[in-house]
Amino acid sequence: MLKAKALEPVRKLPGYDALVEQARQNARKARLDGGVASGLTKISPRAAGLSEPALAALLKAAEEAGTSALVLMYRGDLVGEWHFGGESHRTESMSATKSVVAMAIGMLIDEGRIPSVDTPVSTWFPEWKDGIKSQVTLRHILNHTSGLAAERSGMGIYDARDFVRYALDAEVVDPPGSRFFYSNIAVNLLPGIVERASGEKLDAYLQRKLFEPLGIMDFRWDKDPSGNPVGMAGLQIHPVDFAKLGQVMLQQGTYRAQRFLSQTWVQQCTTSSHPEGSASGLLWWHIYEKSPAMTLVQPMLDEAREKGYSSEKLAKLKDLVGHPMPQEAFAAAIIQRLGSNEELSAFEAKVVRAQYEWKQEGEPVGFAAMGAGGQKLLVFPKHQLVVVRMADMDERVSHQAMAFKALVPLVLDMVRPANARMKEPGMAEMP
Predict the structure, then answer these.
(1) Where is the Beta-lactamase-related domain positioned along the sequence (predicted)?
(2) 42-71: b or e for each residue (b if 16 or more CB lie within 10 Å)?
(3) Segment-wise mean pLDDT, segments of 10 residues, the chain, 431 residues
(4) Which of 44, 123, 167, 244 minimizes the number of CB atoms within 10 Å of its CB?
């Protein structure tokens, strides 16, 4: 945050350097008091079998992409923890929060407090016992096929006092299980389900059952005005502590000989769960070396026009319809035509029924929790690596740069011969 554009005038004030130094000291003390990274054994990159030149290239690219922190773990040992322009601090994980919520659901299934992933949501919310809502199961929420009416960004949710009630009141517009549509609204039901199944708020349950046993003490979880922990985002955590959660997933639910999740649940979370969302499992995502091919389709333009989006701006997108492009080039082409990332968000906010077409080539190289602003918790089982990259959304770099799409191949470059290193970046992410 110290490099944020908004702070440029402040940097010129007398005493700024002393203020920064005091902030750094406070951050170091908070880290020490919170036991951040407690219990981790350190190992050198060479001992982990990682290419040091490739690591240097990764660190350079990470800094250029506006990264605030990068963490590497190998077989449960800490290879390195790098902070760019500041000290370790709790960072908003954005939608990567969802993957942690899925861990809570799995733990409750393992405990028998939730019968199964196919349990109807009406088990906890009787108002859904009638009509099409009675068909919605926990699995549908977890794999984004609930059919609940949703907006792409989820920003409208923040106007609600009770995010759980907001989701309960939403209409089901598609038969449950029939269509993949990324839904922030539906995921906000999960904290309510956790509370009814466990008798505890989501954050309190995870603190007691997962975070404290892992030595994760200094975290924060946003709540809605009614006191519900948010499901779609809101977990603020130190990057090195976030890596511990990835290590649990890498080790099929265990950490330091203690089991937190069943192997069955980890496999369900990280296995494709719906043909239309083949890059996703249960709130966890597959990661690939190459970007998917993205295609703008005419129904998206038609829907945006019906909902009042500028016909003049839609005309600028017409030449992209039906032409697949690599994800990075695709996003750049749309932003160039519309003028800004904010305008792209405005266009997407108008489109609910139609979706981009995308096609992913190749096999997954791992799985991940991912969120806006390039928040990534990456797990590479073949290489026994866990990587966390987090960034403060402080406008130092563009939204495109902050996404850091080159991260996956740069990580894999560290474990392969120099002559086999990839030059084409990419990772599968939903629009």
Answers:
(1) 67-394
(2) ebebeebebbeebbebbbebbeebbbbbbb
(3) 54 58 60 73 96 97 96 98 90 98 99 98 98 98 91 78 97 92 95 99 99 96 98 98 98 97 98 74 94 92 95 96 91 92 89 84 93 97 98 83 92 83 46 34
(4) 44
Residue length of the chain: 431
State how far the Cα of 373 lies from the Cα of 392, in Å rounded to an integer: 8
- Which of 6-12's residues contact partners 24+ apart within 8 Å by CB, and which partners? 6/394, 6/395
Pairing of strands 375-380, 366-371: antiparallel
Give the helix ranges, DSSP H, for 112-189.
Answer: 138-142, 163-168, 184-187
Which two tokens mark 295? 């295609």
What tokens does 308 get? 């009042």
Tokens of 261: 């999740």
d(Cα 169, Cα 173) in Å, to the nearest integer?
12
| Sheet arrangement for strand 219-221 | 91-92, 235-237, 219-221
Full strand arrangement of the beta sheet holding 293-295? 325-326, 293-295, 357-359
Domain spanning 94-233: CATH 3.40.50.1370: no
Helix axes 239-250 and 97-111, enclosed angle (nearest 10)? 50
Q: What pLDDT is attached to residue 431?
A: 34
Q: Contact 191/228 with Cβ under 8 angstroms?
A: yes
Contact assessment for residue 150 and residue 186, using Cβ atoms and an 8 Å cutoff: yes
Per the CB < 8 A criterion, the answer to whether 244 and 256 are in contact is no
Residue 209 is classified by DSSP as I
Tokens linked to 251: 């080790």
Q: What pLDDT is attached to residue 430?
A: 41
* 261, 107 Cβ separation under 8 angstroms: yes
Nearest to 185 by CA among 218, 141, 134, 228: 141
Q: How far apart are CA 24 and CA 116, in angstroms?
A: 46
- With 0-12 / 13-18 / 19 or more C-beta atoms within 10 angstroms meaning exposed / middle / buried, residue 345 is middle
Helix (H, G, I), strand (E, B) or coil at 220: strand
The residues of the chain that CATH labels 3.40.710.10 are 94-233
